[in-house]
Specification:
This protein is 31% helix and 36% strand. The protein is an alpha+beta fold and 121 residues long. The chain has a single domain, classed as Trna Endonuclease, Chain: A, domain 1, CATH 3.40.1350.
């Protein structure tokens, strides 16, 4: 699969994830917030008094592993750096903060898995 196809798959997965978290009652604040070339937060959302940072991983199937396997410790460290940068420039204060992950498996009738508190920052 080429890079453009992977990018398109990732964007589709992020749109599915956005719809999912809206249905869960969260309000999306930002999408694809970039801190640097290598540090991006896919979705930033509010859930009551909690600011939620969400990493989205999409796979068409499980043939090459589960999407959550792609959220390595190195990836978590990069996202944590971006989270701390975001919090420094954020005007609003929240009671709680959380780093979650969403796995999208398949794009037609996708299976969605949601994990809370996957990384500490």
């Amino acid at each position: 699969m080429n890079l453009k196809a992977n990018t398109d798959k990732g964007k589709q997965g992020e749109l599915i994830a956005q719809e999912y978290i809206k249905k869960c009652g969260m309000k999306i604040i930002e999408c694809n917030w970039h801190y640097s070339k290598n540090a991006e937060i896919d979705i930033i959302a509010e859930e009551k008094d909690t600011l939620v940072f969400i990493e989205v991983k999409t796979r068409l199937s499980l043939n090459f592993g589960h999407p959550f396997e792609a959220i390595t410790q190195e990836k978590i460290n990069k996202i944590n750096t971006a989270i701390l940068a975001y919090l420094k420039q954020c005007d609003k204060t929240y009671k709680n903060y959380r780093f979650d992950g969403i796995a999208i498996i398949g794009l037609q009738n996708p299976k969605i898995e949601y994990l809370k508190d996957i990384g500490q920052f």
